Amino acid sequence: LSPDEDGICSGRYFSESGLVGLLEQAAELFSTGGLYETVNEVYKIVIPILEAHRDFRKLTLTHCKLQKAFDSIINKGQKRMFGTYFRVGFYGSKFGDLDEQEFVYKEPAITKLPEISHRLEGFYGQCFGEDAVEVIKDSAPVDKRKLDPNKAYIQITFVEPYFDEYEMKDRVTYFEKNFNLCRFMYTTPFTMDGRPRGELSEQYKRNTILTTMHAFPYIKTRINVIQKEEFILTPIEVAIEDMRKKTQELTAATNQEPPDPKMLQMVLQGSVGATVNQGPLEVAQVFLAEIPADPKLYRHHNKLRLCFKEFIMR
């Protein structure tokens, strides 16, 4: 800042007490918004100023508020409500600049897909006329040539925050897994002959990772997608992923404090029940009955065997 510019340094917030006032307001709002960990970050800036002024009354208040914030973290644990995220793509010349743009929307934590779908359909229906708006129900890539040029199409997909393995080392708490998010993932099952679902041996999966321009939470509740990456998982990789998921569910259910027999019962039924046609037994019969002919599959074959070893141990 250049001090000779008129009015910049004479505003009422441009002083130590003004800064402290604004930061305290920010901490209050973070607390109301349930982001208790950030309250601590904000007060880290405030406390040295209060200490320098020997303002013990305010220091007492600040530490009381910090205690409240830390208590909330301990007491609320996994019950805290963070956002639910959806990818929304707009297709059709009716949208003007929005045509072929994709956004990630942040919604309140218990929003279901039909709710946001109904809301966006209603909103754009008022803009273009109800008959002109259509919601694309699947998450497969959109082929613009097959769309009616007189209609506006909206494609909505549920997405989850995505982290690389190395990131997970730093994102330990529930809060860290729901804060400062700019990468999201959704999966689309497909088979080579065009059907979304098929037998285990022909079930492929497309993982799409989206990167947004800014990180959530943000001032706006929708942010542009600036990058899109796609990974195709082969049937055996899909099976490995499923087995890992099942093992994680079992681990969580057996280590739950206090123990929850109902949850364990459900997970066990889903894992080893004879009625589950695409359960672990089926996976083993399809992929592990014989050693694959293609040497490229040896690694996956071994990985899957290790997954089963872990699974049986659990």
Written description of the protein model:
With 314 residues, the protein is an alpha+beta fold. It has three domains: 61 residues, Serine Threonine Protein Phosphatase 5, Tetratricopeptide repeat; 150 residues, no CATH class; 78 residues, Methane Monooxygenase Hydroxylase, Chain G, domain 1, CATH 1.20.58.740. Helix content is 42%, strand content 20%. It is built from nine helices and seven strands, in the order H-H-H-E-E-H-E-E-H-E-E-E-H-H-H-H. Strands 1-2-7-6-5-4 form a six-stranded antiparallel β-barrel. Helix 6 runs antiparallel to helix 7. The radius of gyration is 26 Å and the shape is globular.
What is the chains' assembly state?
A: single chain
Strand line-up of the largest beta sheet? 1-2-7-6-5-4
| H and E order | HHHEEHEEHEEEHHHH
Helix percent band: 40-55%
Strand content: 15-25%
Mean pLDDT: 90
Number of helices: 9
Gyration radius from CA atoms, angstroms: 26 Å
Secondary-structure-based class equals: alpha+beta
- State the end-to-end distance: 61 Å
Detail the poorly predicted runs. Answer: none
Which word captures the global form?
globular
Number of strands: 7
- Domain count: 3
How would a textbook summarize the main sheet? Answer: 6 strands, antiparallel, barrel
Domain DOCKER: 1-314
GO molecular function, one term: guanyl-nucleotide exchange factor activity
Organism: Galbula dea
Keywords: Guanine-nucleotide releasing factor
